[in-house]
Amino acid sequence: MQNRDMNPDERVASIQFTADTLSVDLVDGRTITVPLAQFPRLRNATPSQLANWQISGGGYGIHWPEIDEDLSTAGLLCSTPAGPRKGVPIDPASS
């Protein structure tokens, strides 16, 4: 996670997807909306895979087990896009 203080109100309450965005509702009432283009694994996932998510990291993270993707509220608040993981290829045709 990012090097910043964790605020208890920055925990995940719920998430929603559109065709192009991910929106994360926080406990404090704010909503973070980011383009899926920043997260290739999410962009390339099926609707079923996207719907299979879990709150992780004590409430500060989101995990998609079928696509092995993890995001944190700290990263989303700092606008840190996901990059390729070492040894985990991303579909080059979608980049």
Describe this structure in words.
This protein is α+β, with helices and mostly antiparallel strands. The chain has one domain: Uncharacterised protein PF10387, DUF2442 (NE0471 N-terminal domain-like, 2-Layer Sandwich), CATH 3.30.2020. It is built from three helices and six strands; from the N terminus they run E-E-E-H-H-E-E-E-H. The model has no long low-confidence stretch (mean pLDDT 85).
Q: Sketch the topology as an H/E string, one letter per element.
A: EEEHHEEEH
The residue-averaged pLDDT reads 85
Low-confidence stretches: none
Could you tell me the CATH topology label: NE0471 N-terminal domain-like
Query: What's the CATH architecture name?
Result: 2-Layer Sandwich
Structural class: alpha+beta
- What's the Cα radius of gyration? 13 Å
Give the amount of beta strand, in percent: 25-35%
Overall helicity: 10-25%
The rough form would be described as globular
State the major sheet: 3 strands, antiparallel
Q: How many structural domains?
A: 1
Name of the CATH superfamily: Uncharacterised protein PF10387, DUF2442
CA distance, first residue to last residue: 25 Å
Given the structure, what is the number of helices? 3
CATH class: Alpha Beta
Number of strands: 6
Strand order, main sheet: write it out: 1-2-3
